[in-house]
Amino acid sequence: MAYAYWKSGKHHEKAVFDLFFRKNPFQGEFTIFAGLEEVLTFLRNFSYSESDIEYLRVTMADTVEDEFFEYLSSISTTDVTLYAVDEGKVVFPRVPLMILEGPLIVVQLLETTLLNLVNYASLIATNAARYRMAAGRKIQLLEFGLRRAQGPDGGLSASKYAYIGGFDGTSNVLAGKLYNIPVKGTHAHSYISSYSSLAELQIETLQHKESGEVMNLKDRSLVWRELLSRELNILQSEASDGELAAYISFAIAFPTGFVALVDTYDVLKVYQGSVGQDILPRENNNNNNNNYYYYLSGLLNFCAVAMGLNDLGYRALGIRIDSGDLAYLSCVARTTFVTVAEKFNVEWLEHVQIVASNDINEETIISLNEQGHKIDCFGIGTHLVTCQRQPALGCVFKLVEINGEAKIKLSQDVEKVTCPGKKTVYRLYGEDGHALIDLMHRTQEAAPECGSRVLCRHPFQESKRAYVSPAQVESLHKLYWDEGKIQQKLPELTEIRDRVSSSLQTLRQDHKRNLNPTPYKVGVTDDLYNFLHDLWLQNAPIGELF
Amino acid sequence: MAYAYWKSGKHHEKAVFDLFFRKNPFQGEFTIFAGLEEVLTFLRNFSYSESDIEYLRVTMADTVEDEFFEYLSSISTTDVTLYAVDEGKVVFPRVPLMILEGPLIVVQLLETTLLNLVNYASLIATNAARYRMAAGRKIQLLEFGLRRAQGPDGGLSASKYAYIGGFDGTSNVLAGKLYNIPVKGTHAHSYISSYSSLAELQIETLQHKESGEVMNLKDRSLVWRELLSRELNILQSEASDGELAAYISFAIAFPTGFVALVDTYDVLKVYQGSVGQDILPRENNNNNNNNYYYYLSGLLNFCAVAMGLNDLGYRALGIRIDSGDLAYLSCVARTTFVTVAEKFNVEWLEHVQIVASNDINEETIISLNEQGHKIDCFGIGTHLVTCQRQPALGCVFKLVEINGEAKIKLSQDVEKVTCPGKKTVYRLYGEDGHALIDLMHRTQEAAPECGSRVLCRHPFQESKRAYVSPAQVESLHKLYWDEGKIQQKLPELTEIRDRVSSSLQTLRQDHKRNLNPTPYKVGVTDDLYNFLHDLWLQNAPIGELF
């Protein structure tokens, strides 16, 4: 295509392209724009290397002139101008996320990479922001997805944009190193199963946190297990010695960071009425005559080591549950902690963190909230990073103007008709600070003024019109790339992360809710409406029958 | 976790891990194993750089000893051994794709990367192989997915593994350059809409292919459009001059490679009985009294330029349809080509390629086959590269042996119980060359012999047993990494691609069909069955109630 542009002498023509999407992902009504910094880095580095040219020479037809390859090796983005929405802002269908102006051939060559960089970044950031809204502000969210991500770079991008979208950390250490994202993780089941017995413990001791006195954590943990077993009416035979050994070794390695995975060995024990303490009866138990009780056997070992650590002046951090009924099990765990904390006067134990993982998605979080749970932290992998519910955002890159002449792409599907010409977009806010509408203007039109009413039209439905008097008017795009240079100070990742949060706050709750959210309005001025429809008629040939 | 292993002196213990999945993707009953070469490259390069160590020093707790970081900077995969299935082979749940042996800490540190490299590669290769089976051998399949892929590297991996799975080419030029995959593509809608009129054509001429005589393609195309318009009873006013100009310029650039996108301007015209030639009446037309006819307006322009090229000794390659009813439109297009070819005695035009794109997936192809179509080539993007139907393969990495002692991971969900110990796996084939079962052995057991019956057991269902007399026995794993070196000659991409095809041929059709395929059998020997269940009982503590 680039060669055909060059061959027909069109490569110097000045083109304007809009990059936008047509539909918000995840059946929602908003999207977080992300990927801008990577786009700018790409623009800065864009060129064809000698080996690229050599490959193209070999691959393309023999008739392609040397001059084309010379031209190709000389191109850069110096003459390209990029207007973009700030990274991390909430955006909507049909509004350009980026507007690119420049020589037709250069801007066209950027298309696929720009789409690639924006599509996945925005999708992940949006997905993460939705998880954050579902979980609420107080819950810690960790990205655990690298092993299931679509390629190594898919995993890195996921960590970065999940953080921007509102996650608190990642288990991807390279992402931590490259992007300065907090790294968090726990051990895997294999750590537990690598121990068979207490005899395997090569180190049993640890220095007391304050006194420095060397004390035996294994002996203390065993004493506590005996005591707790009686207190909680759980048989010690239920708790694996290998698991206890693994916990003790992990606590010795990380006395201030001890988090235990509690479901390696047959996770759930069921007790009948006469046995075990009534920890928390299952409310929806079908058979109310039999009192069944449930218990996580790893909890006993965890509590034993946590109390052992307590003797040495340390506080355990918490547990991770990776299977079963997370709502119920987290309640069981919390009740256990409260029971032990009260009985032995160890107030902090009441509040240790309960981390839940295992195929969690937005719906799981919403469902857990409805059931009630005691989870403090979710570790989320596959569904977050692959965006299982919708693994691609459908951004497109459409020519809207060439040599000053507006262009329209028609389609039988009205949703696919493009909005022609270079446009300016304003976000209009109401008195209460909420965004009302994104209004697309032709560039020559005056900006809307605060307090003055402006006619907003639906781009395709003639009768849908409304006057809006904005309390605040925001120009959505900034000049980000011009004359071969980045034109704005680029924010830190944490600033983008804050922008996601504050931008979402400008959005009314009904646009953000999970079920049947209200579409946010995107409109055009009267001038642009008429321009669009005139051009449509000009370009749609008159047929015989409709 | 690595630090805890080191701290507790376990890092030198010799561990065996299995990498496997539990469920085939896409509701199918087979998976293509891919990613091995990248795994081997990773093993060869595995080490911690100075900056990695520096980052870890800053990030980890102050209590972590210098000796640990020294140890970490010294580790390599020299002591690691990797057995793997050949890349491109068909594989099944629970059978290890790779078996890793080595120092516990090293093998554990490899886990996430290995899973990442195998999961997506195998998923894409399997997806591509399924598309290939749905499309049949004769249809060309092109990967067009970069713009929607999950990150730049996700796009590259997609191109590579789609090719392995049976695709014929990619539109990703970098993938072409790096992996020597054929690159194929067509122009985009923006190429068409960059032209408004014939006056914009800066070059109108082209040399005759044989005689070298410079001739005017524009004039000839216009003459042909006039003629064809009458022949096909289509008004010339229906065909955009901008579109024609774009086609002519593209044909001049690529006289031997002219493929035209035919749906930029209002794609489908509907004619009533009295107007237009009966190109192909829609069979399922609800109202048979009115004869409605359908026509792609871009077809007229394409035929005009194709006939113009013919005058100059060239042959157009074909068209691309990117919207609408692909089955029906492809039939309309083919009928048009046949009509024109016969009328003007241009036999080759009958057979030009019809490329279809627009959100195609496996189900679309199957549905198009059922409806009947004349498509020769599919360009497939989003669904292929993101594996929309199931965007992650769930490979896991489980410890099965440590210091010679077999390990089992228990779970309430029987499907999640691991198969303990280091194993040897054989694929048993029947007389007709079809694979019958993958049989897992304990390593000390003798291999099955051709012609001798061997007892195969279901790993968990006691009563499911069968004798099999294999006509052929294949040991599934080869030693791929040992003593810090790759131990096998690695195949070219095309060899792996051939292996996918031949490996799938060993599979009975009922395992491969799209709807309700029969599960392929994976079994264990009697010895392994007993070993597994004894270990299970040893590790599951006796509770109070089941």
Automatic annotation (TrEMBL), chains A, B:
<dbReference type="Pfam" id="PF17767">
    <property type="entry name" value="NAPRTase_N"/>
</dbReference>
<comment type="similarity">
    <text>Belongs to the NAPRTase family.</text>
</comment>
<dbReference type="InterPro" id="IPR007229">
    <property type="entry name" value="Nic_PRibTrfase-Fam"/>
</dbReference>
<feature type="domain" description="Nicotinate phosphoribosyltransferase C-terminal">
    <location>
        <begin position="422"/>
        <end position="531"/>
    </location>
</feature>
<feature type="domain" description="Nicotinate phosphoribosyltransferase N-terminal">
    <location>
        <begin position="1"/>
        <end position="119"/>
    </location>
</feature>
<dbReference type="GO" id="GO:0034355">
    <property type="term" value="P:NAD+ biosynthetic process via the salvage pathway"/>
</dbReference>
<dbReference type="InterPro" id="IPR013785">
    <property type="entry name" value="Aldolase_TIM"/>
</dbReference>
<dbReference type="GO" id="GO:0004516">
    <property type="term" value="F:nicotinate phosphoribosyltransferase activity"/>
</dbReference>
<comment type="pathway">
    <text>Cofactor biosynthesis; NAD(+) biosynthesis; nicotinate D-ribonucleotide from nicotinate: step 1/1.</text>
</comment>
<protein>
    <recommendedName>
        <fullName>nicotinate phosphoribosyltransferase</fullName>
        <ecNumber>6.3.4.21</ecNumber>
    </recommendedName>
</protein>
<dbReference type="Pfam" id="PF17956">
    <property type="entry name" value="NAPRTase_C"/>
</dbReference>
<dbReference type="InterPro" id="IPR041619">
    <property type="entry name" value="NAPRTase_C"/>
</dbReference>
<dbReference type="InterPro" id="IPR036068">
    <property type="entry name" value="Nicotinate_pribotase-like_C"/>
</dbReference>
<keyword id="KW-0597">Phosphoprotein</keyword>
<dbReference type="GO" id="GO:0005829">
    <property type="term" value="C:cytosol"/>
</dbReference>
<keyword id="KW-0662">Pyridine nucleotide biosynthesis</keyword>
<dbReference type="InterPro" id="IPR040727">
    <property type="entry name" value="NAPRTase_N"/>
</dbReference>
<keyword id="KW-0436">Ligase</keyword>
